[in-house]
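Handout, section B. The chain below has 748 residues.
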Amino acid sequence: MGISKNAQVVLERRYLIKDKDGNTIETVDEMFHRVADAIASSEKMYENGEDAGKLAEVFYDMMTKLEFLPNSPTLMNAGKDLGQLSACFVLPVDDSMESIFEAIKQAALIHKSGGGTGFSFSRLRCEGSVVNSTGGVASGPISFMKVFNVATEAVKQGGSRRGANMGILRIDHPDILKFIDCKSNNKEITNFNISVGLTEAFMKAAEKGDDYDLVDPHTKVTVGKLNAAKVFDKIVEAAWRNGEPGIIFLDRLNRDNIVPSQGEIESTNPCGEQPLLPYESCNLGSINLTKMLKKNGKSWEFDWKKVEKTVKNAVHFLDNVIDVNKYPIEEIDFTTKQTRKIGLGVMGWADSLLMMKIPYNSTEAIELGERLMKFINEVGREKSQEIAVKRGTFPLFEESILPKDKPQRNGTITTIAPTGTLSIIAECSSGVEPIFGYVFVRNIMDGTEMLEVNSVLKEELERRGLYSEALMKRIAKEGSIAHIEEIPEDIRRVFVSSHDISPEDHIRMQAAFQKYTDNAVSKTVNFSHAATEEDVAEVYKLAFRLGCKGVTIYRDGSRDEQVLNIGKVNKDEEIPAEELTGRIVPRGRPDVVSGVTERVQIGCGKLYITANYDDKGICEIFTNTGKAGGCPSQSEATSRLASIALRSGIDVKTIVSQLKGIRCPSTVRQPGLKCTSCPDAIARTIEKIYNKHIELGYWDPDAISVSSLMEDDHVLTHMIKFCPECGEAVEHEGGCVICRQCGYSKCN
């Protein structure tokens, strides 16, 4: 099994088992064995099940060959005590205090287990309406979304990440205008993606410029009217401004609701590709299309027999996941097994097109996408029917809208999910997204740079004798090869990047895959910074006309202002956009500073700590040890790093918390000392000076710092170009945000 160095790093960082001290104690090969054995063990639950050992070999083989990978929770948790294998869930939120806070509790349990959650707030009565039971006034859905947001903030998944949420509100809810603008401030409701639930009736009214009714969800009475065209424009304006809200077409979700007797589909998972009933879960996996190709002479083409084999094995795998999954809530266990929905998707689509020399933005690519997804969906359905013969249909099959003459094991078969981290492991492009960039400059630990070039482009350029490091650096800088004239036109025509592709072609590709996908397609339509609100509006309208179930857009640079704020220590100083590199650069040491020197008794004798500061805060720490000796090099190193952190805008309290309380053997042997080590002494001095100056009003404690923003992943991932964990550029794709350097994503 061969995986890239980058994939190895991502796996070690996020997937492989660690001991209590954080040391990796599992190899990549052992991980795949763990997952394969756990998923195959489901066969023991059925009298006519296959040989679990042989099936485990099949599962292991297709994963190690990177032909198929399940969603991240399955890779992380299969075969472990936690055993929670689903990516996301939808929870109900009804119009009562009991239901609201039950949903918050259940969401906390899900986030703790590593899952994301989707909610519809459409059942909550509007702000200002009377609550009959108390005579009080309702606070409205936006207010409760903030409560959900705070609860999510407090629960870190597995101790390492916060939960991702989707919040949806129907277009005919009386508070819809407040909802559209609820994320205009990127510091609020930071743990939610939001989408407006549009109806067919609304879209027709918007086209005609007619008014439409606002309906009180509690009384079902019309309480007002709005002009649909103006509301549509408001949605467009907000999305153009910072990418939110997205839109989903509720009627289309419910047109494909396989068990309408169980209620309406009102929400999706956080990335929007999996519409679910309350208490259902999404169990996803993706086929790596680059591994489904074969040579035909000098050209590549799909090996349809291999696609068929992989699809069948993948459907079997995902059906087994439902059985071995340890769901966080009993209601989810029951409801998921009532419909047994799975979501088999693809990744590596753009890379496959490159290998076949087919431009992403071509009619040929769209037609091939339709053909491919139709084939996958049909083969997947056939396999589900085959499993149904052996194991039975899903329990609600007789209530479903599916043909009764073809018993089926799974309510749905296909979903196109974002595959950010999985595609890093598989070394391919994400989902059905185009290539975001062909060349990346990766920063190595010693400060050197390494060029990472798309393998297909590199091979083509080397074959023609055009490859050079200088050319790669130019491509990395420009982000595209479209205007590099020394590269032949036929190469430029095929190797298009995300921003070379028109928004309309983005949508046409999404619609091509949606045509034969049971659930939905997660995809981001990337706009250039110069795109207008009219451009966004046309894409939304086109998505509606072409049968998409939802749309997510991102206009390049639409959140740059916030990025600049992060990069600034001094609010009054502007950093030119061209200087923004993704790394935090400390401000220079002022020429004139004030300072305080403190003498502290440590285990080794006396330590002299000098803290220098200006009107912006503490900017420099240095130390000197007395004649007794001690560890001067260690103290100096701590001081230098603290100085850099302070001048980079890192919150003082964060620095203090990291240093304070560190113990040294010399202090342990001498009870009664106020300081436990040199780092502890440095922390105490910094804290003392900081608190004194805050008390005197010299410094602003509410000034924006890097750490206060960095601690909130979801603030960053919605508004940044750079990863909050490693500082490299992030990509907006598949309704998500992914860093290809370290594997960070909003949902993982």
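Note. The first helix runs from residue 5 to 14. Compare this with the example in section A.
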